[in-house]
Amino acid sequence: MLSGYSIVCFGGEDWWYHHPHSKTHLLKRLARTNKVLFVNSISMGLPRVSAPDFFLKIRRKLRSYARFLRRTEEGILVLTPVVIPAFGSPALRRLNRWLLAVQLRWLLRRCGMTRPLLWVAIPTAADLVGTLDEQIVIYQVSDKYDANTMDHNLPPALIQQLHQRLLDKADLVLYSGRRLFEEAHEFREKSRFLEQGVDFAHFARTGELAGNPPRELAGLQRPILGYFGALDFVIDQELVRYVAARRPEWSWVFIGLKSNALQVESLSNVRVLGPRPYAEMPRYAAAFDVCVLPWDLKNRFVAYGSALKVREYLASGKPVVIMALPEYESWGSVLRIAHSYDEFIAKVEDALAERIPEAARRRQQSVRGHTWDIRVEQFSLWVEEALRQKTGTGN
């Protein structure tokens, strides 16, 4: 694993408010032997005022600003830098570049972080490349960025332009999704597929937690279809309504950051719990009868997702039913994959009828070798290789 480096990561999300992303898991491990600074999302501009979550997201960001700089229990510095949430204007981008560079240079000097490895996971950070005396630039492509028209009002053409600049400037390009990697035809020599991982030991505890459900789920009508993760435009609410109407005896449980866009909460057999601590996720998974991924694959941005929660579901051993996300189309031996709403119902019914203990062990075995410890070792090898190629250094 990498050791003795300074790492600056520009995230596409705020550290505090999301189910852990791949960067979160990797950085927590890297922080054991390196100095790590995580920069909360500098966004891609404000969402449209007409967006359901406009004021919710503004309040959430203001709470992040209030924290400004904090250190996590793993020793990671988390910074919410002051920026103007507008990147469409070249003048505003230049101003943001200056604002960010001033704040980061000050903080890096204060913390004794020199010649950092610059890890970028949001296109609007492209302007910072070359301002921090970085050794190398790592660009992590986590999403189909220019297909996201829900969270901001930045023109797709500009997002693509910033994305292209990062591809060109990066020394190492990491793709989090198989579909993203397979469709990336440029810069193949420096591109790598960093598959999603899983905190296997954490989620494999569900067996020992069975029979002791969280209080808010005790007494809930069974079977329970459970989901944890983003609760916004990724959810196919038409699917949830369709299934809820035809199987009113099934209970849906959604765990994650609440969104005003999630309107199915009003259904009598849908319960939205909001966010719960990551440490408690195995207890909730243990109470689910089936883990589900009801993502809206009609949305082009969502269809490129890699949903690391699917591996977490599998590690729990629970039956898993997902809509046909391209990332997992080849996992049919351990996943029940639906291509229509009626097929989703049929797959859930099949999962509920499962009586083979070996099936749970087979699901767990499918991800046992996908741990974040293995992923961070692979990440480290690629970074060391990029360092040797660029600077002739590396441990």
| Annotated CATH topology of the largest domain | Rossmann fold
Q: How many domains is the backbone divided into?
A: 2
Q: Strands across the major sheet, in which order?
A: 3-4-2-1-5-6-7-8
Shape, principal axes of CA atoms? globular
Give the name of the CATH superfamily of the largest domain.
Glycogen Phosphorylase B
Secondary-structure content class: alpha/beta
Spans of at least 5 consecutive residues with low confidence: none
Q: How large a portion of the residues is in β-strands, by DSSP E?
A: 5-15%
Cα-atom Rg, whole angstroms? 21 Å
Q: What fraction, in percent, of the residue positions are helical?
A: 25-40%
The level-1 CATH class of the largest domain = Alpha Beta
Main beta sheet strand tally, sense and closure:
8 strands, mixed
Amino- and carboxy-terminal Cα gap:
10 Å
CATH architecture of the largest domain: 3-Layer(aba) Sandwich
Order of helices and strands: EHEHEEHEEHEHEHHEHEEHEHHEEHHH
Give the rounded overall mean pLDDT.
92
Number of E strands: 14
